[in-house]
Amino acid sequence: MSGTLVLLRHGQSDWNLKNLFTGWKDPDLTEKGVEEAKGAGQRLKAAGYRFDLAFTSELSRAQRTLTLALGELGQSGLETIRNIALNERDYGDLSGLNKDDAREKWGEEQVHIWRRSYDTPPPGGESLKDTGARVWPYYIHTIQPRVLRGETILVAAHGNSLRALVMALEGMSGEEIVGEEIATGVPIVYRLNADSTVAEKTVLSA
């Protein structure tokens, strides 16, 4: 028996638009973000997906994206579990700063290392490795068993928490995941084998 896992990064947020480091801060979606979330739901519906359960983070941009997508699917009442383990990477002292201002303060190279390296955290924040350290156990103990029972599960979360999941699902190294980008509002569909490996991956682009 195999199940299906769908990963969905939230739609564009107000701080994405303003080029700010967001992390655990809680801005809302932009109008474009709302349309991206609805579009994700429409494409999932057109592809015939129906979900048994949804997971999301404690941050409103992911929760609202999930709500909007489920509305388009006609599944507004779907049981949803929220957990801090799925929150975006904590950017620490960078949170709320404009990315260009951060480059001026610390230098292009240092900010690039903080943003893109696997295991170097910004001051007071988390690296991608740190983010994975909370995402992976939650996935293995709480989400994966539902998928392996044959259920169809939707996870609406964030760029870095989902990158950590993609890394685990696809067996990527720390070097390989550095170049992986997760687009806003684009569902990534994994069908899993009974041994939890990926049988098939589909990206439902606009």
TrEMBL record:
User: Taxonomic lineage per UniProt?
Assistant: Bacteria, Pseudomonadati, Pseudomonadota, Alphaproteobacteria, Hyphomicrobiales
- CDD domains linked: HP_PGM_like
**What Enzyme Commission number does this protein have?**
5.4.2.11
- Protein name from the UniProt record: 2,3-bisphosphoglycerate-dependent phosphoglycerate mutase
Is the keyword Isomerase assigned to this protein? yes
The UniProt entry's sequence similarity note says: Belongs to the phosphoglycerate mutase family. BPG-dependent PGAM subfamily.
User: Is Disulfide bond included in the keywords of this UniProt record?
Assistant: no
Q: Which residues bind substrate?
A: 9-16, 22-23, 61, 88-91, 99, 115-116, 159-160
Gene3D superfamilies listed in its UniProt record: Phosphoglycerate mutase-like (3.40.50.1240)
Catalytic reaction equation(s): (2R)-2-phosphoglycerate = (2R)-3-phosphoglycerate
NCBIfam families noted in UniProt: pgm_1, PRK01295.1
Question: Which species does the entry assign this protein to?
Answer: Fulvimarina manganoxydans
Q: Which InterPro entries match?
A: His_Pase_superF_clade-1, His_PPase_superfam, PG/BPGM_mutase_AS, Phosphogly_mut1
